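Q: Sequence in, structure out?
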Amino acid sequence: MVFFRKTYQKLLNWKKESNGKTVLLLSGARRIGKSFLCEQFGKNEYKSMIIIDFGNVPKEIKDIFEYDSADLNMFFAKLSAFFNTRLYKRKSLIIFDEVQLFPYARQLLKYLVADGRYDYMETGSLLSLKQNVQDIVIPSEEEEIRMFPMDFEEFLLALGDESTVPLLRLSFEKKKPLGQVLHRKVMNDFRQYLLVGGMPQAVMEYVMHKDFARTDKIKKHILALYRNDIAKYAGNYKNKVLAIFDSLPGQLSKKEKKYKLSSISKSARTRNYEDAFMWLTDGMIANPCFNATDPNVGLALSVDNNTQKIYMADTGLLVTHAFGDNDYSDNELYRAILLDKLSINEGMLLENAAAQMLASNGHRLFFYSRVDKNKRKNMMEIDFLISRKKKICSVEVKSSRYQVHSSLDKFRRKFTSSKKLGDSYILYTKDIMIKDDVIHLPVYMAMFL
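A: Exactly. Output:
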C-alpha cells in the first residue's frame, strides 16, 4: 500500500531545480516514511537506484568509502558491482539512508556532487548532534527538506477520501460555514486522526483493519523504538532526555502548559537540560514552542529560551504515550474522543494537534505569555503566534464549551497600534464563525494556516 505524501512534490521540485548541483537531505523522526518515500521516488523518477542503509551496512561498503573514494571511477565501479546495479550518467540516484550513522559519507557528498555523474539523496535524524558531525565538514551543497508525520489531508486520502479537503479549503478561503452535517462528519474523521496519528505504519494498520487496538500496538512499538534510540544515542544525558520524554503527557495535560523542570527535580535548571531538549527537537520527536516576549520587534528577535512548551510531533503517539500502561480496552480516552465526550484531555490533544499542523506547515512555534502576579487582570497567554502574510497572527485553541477569550482580547488591546498585528484565530470543535473580528475555525482547518 502506497500513501500519497506531499513531500513527494518537493522531491520532484528539487530534482528539476537542482539538476545535480545539490544533494537532497530528507530529515525527520524515525518511522515517518523517509526511506520508503526515497525508494519510491528513485523507482519512479530514475533509470536505476542504489540504496545504502548505514544502519545495516556491511564492512565492505564502509571500506569502499574509506579506501576508494579518492578514485571515483573505482568507487562507483565497486558500488555498482556490490549492489549488482548499473549506474547511468545523470539518470541514476544513490541514496544514503540513515547517514548520521556514518558521518564520513555525508562529508564525501561534496565531492560526489562536484563529480556530477549521479543524483544523491540522504535520509537521517539527529543530524546536528555533536557526535554526528564531529570531525567532518558538512557539505554546503546539502539542501534539506523536513518530513513530518502524515497530516490530516494525507490521512483522509489514505482512507480514500479525495473530495473533502478541496471543499474545506474553499470554505476556509471564503470563510463560509460547512453546515452542521458536513462539519460533524469531518470532525468525526478528525477524531479518528487524533487517535491513529500520522505514523504511516499505524495509518496502514487502521486503513486495513479499522481497529484502534491494532494501531495502538504499532504506536507502542514506535515509542519503544524512540526510547531505545534515546538510550543508545543520547550519550551522557540519556537519563535527562528520558525524563523529559516520559513527562510530556503529564505536562501537556495541565492547564498551564509551559514546561516546568521542577516536575522532574526541584534542583533541575534549564542550562543543565539544554542538550536533552535539543535531542528531542533534533530527532523531531517533539515540537518546541518558545515565548516571544515582544511581537512588535518580531517573534524570533524577542524569544525567551528559558520559557517553552514542548508538544509531541505526532498526536496519535501522544495518546498512546499518555495511556501506555493500559490496554486499549481499558483506555477511556479512545471512547471519549470518538463519542465527543472529552473533558480534561480535550485541550491537551487539540492544542498538540494544532502545534503539529502548524509545524508541518513550516511555522517555527511561538506563544505569548505575560505574568503579572500583582495585577491578575494584566496576565494573559496566547497559545500560538504565527507569521502569515507578513503579519503576526494570534491563535488560541479552545474547547467547544468555551464562553470567552479574555487573553486574546487583552492581547489585541495591548498591540492594537502595532502595524505587524494580523488576524486573530480561535481553533475549536465547531463550524466556521466570525465574531468580534475573531475568526473561529474548526481545529482541522489549522492545516490551512
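The radius of gyration is 23 Å.
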